[in-house]
Amino acid sequence: FIRYSHLEIGAKIGAGGAGEVYVGKWCGQTVAIKKSYMDLMANDASELCHEATMLAALNHPKIIRFYGLSRSLDGHLVLVMEYIPLCLETFVKREEAVSDSRPPGLGWADAHRLVLELAQTLAYIHGEHMVHLDLKPANVLLSEGEDGDLHIKLCDLGMAKMTKRGPRGYLWEKEIGTPGFMPPEAILLRRASTSEPQAVGDVANARDANAFGGKGGYSTSSVAEINDPMKWDIFGLGILAWVCWSLREPFEHASGSDDMNHRVFSGERPCLEAGSATMPQVFRG
Questions:
Q1: How many domains would you assign to the chain?
Q2: Are residues 39 and 122 in the same domain?
């Protein structure tokens, strides 16, 4: 436990579903400080407790370091973590803003290294019987190593879960994932009209499939057969690989989250032809 008086809270640098993130100081080092919106009795505080539990259970050089928990004077839960200022989302937006005549910020070797590190980190998490469930550019931090190259650090395990299978399948109690990076079966789960935990197979019915224009996309039966949440992470990894190679956001022409989910469910995927010059010709359509 970290004494709150030992923390120096600086500028706000981000916000998520469970709290706001600040840059700060602790024991002379720069840290990221995540503070719950409400006090310790609120739901978002319990989500931060869950994230702290997941981070404390993992020990990998490509996962953000967790230093400890604290409590603010007004009763808010506080997570103290390693601070890395750059994420893949910011990097992509920065590259999209530059002139088309400028060489891309990631060469093929750089993109390949980042994707490989992501895959290795995900393999470690799965080996610990956990799933991340929210792989996206904002949760992939980028830092420069001693070799001068960019390397990844995976963060935000607020949605991560242990992979314990019950008699009816894997059970989830809340919405998970981010549109554009979650697979069709996760979209079905999100649309399930119930407040009770359900197995993936239970929510894969014809009504939900037709709501997404199931013809030509994922069939009801194929979704029902996919009840391994590790595969959900693999889907997100594939989209992240495309982002690293193309330096663009997937489904950038979608009109919103619902449209993005519809595109994913109907079988649309980011087009390799839209990739930048970093992508080898063999991967283009």
A1: 2
A2: no
